[in-house]
Amino acid sequence: GNSVTQMEGPVTLSEEAFLTINCTYTATGYPSLFWYVQYPGEGLQLLLKATKADDKGSNKGFEATYRKETTSFHLEKGSVQVSDSAVYFCALSVSNTGKLIFGQGTTLQVKP
Amino acid sequence: DSGVTQTPKHLITATGQRVTLRCSPRSGDLSVYWYQQSLDQGLQFLIQYYNGEERAKGNILERFSAQQFPDLHSELNLSSLELGDSALYFCASSVALELSPLHFGNGTRLTVT
Prior knowledge:
Distance between the termini of chain A: 41 Å
Strand content of chain B: over 45%
Radius of gyration of chain B: 13 Å
Largest sheet of chain B: 7 strands, mixed
Structural class of chain A: mainly beta
Number of strands of chain B: 11
Oligomer: heterodimer
Helix content of chain B: under 10%
Helix content of chain A: under 10%
Shape of chain B: globular
Shape of chain A: globular
Distance between the termini of chain B: 31 Å
């Protein structure tokens, strides 16, 4: 079946550190891949997406590249800020609809 | 602010009861999705409506039902509630039937005691 696996958290970093959150997937067909972010007390917000292999999604300094050969979509940011503290979800869609399959989420804590 | 409004924000009820969660999608969005977020199951897709019609079903229990009204707001009905139904229920909306950015509401936290 289709599934998404994320690295377990929490991930704790100091401000300006480099961030990587690993995400791998299993899917039939050619999925679209997403990263969503959830700040405390809020709903999920789309952070970035990629719809085909080798596409790079980017937003607010975050990047992720769709790697079909390794079935991965790792999230990276060169220099994190305290305001980046949130839960990050990797997700996929195989049916080109809003029916998303989410990973378990990774909590990021950034300390000043 | 995503533009998606969910009410109520919090709901506390007893086992065996029935509740209704309401969602108003973002202006102009025709698709509404319901997701359940729980500690053990994570975020799971429940159901999708598009312009009043059910279009996709996920891991939704038979005790749960939903509908989308002509004004495009949606309601999720949960009945014969069990302790395990305690979760955060999110509504999301998008403009199209096919893949387009989802806009999530802030959720309704349901506690079943």
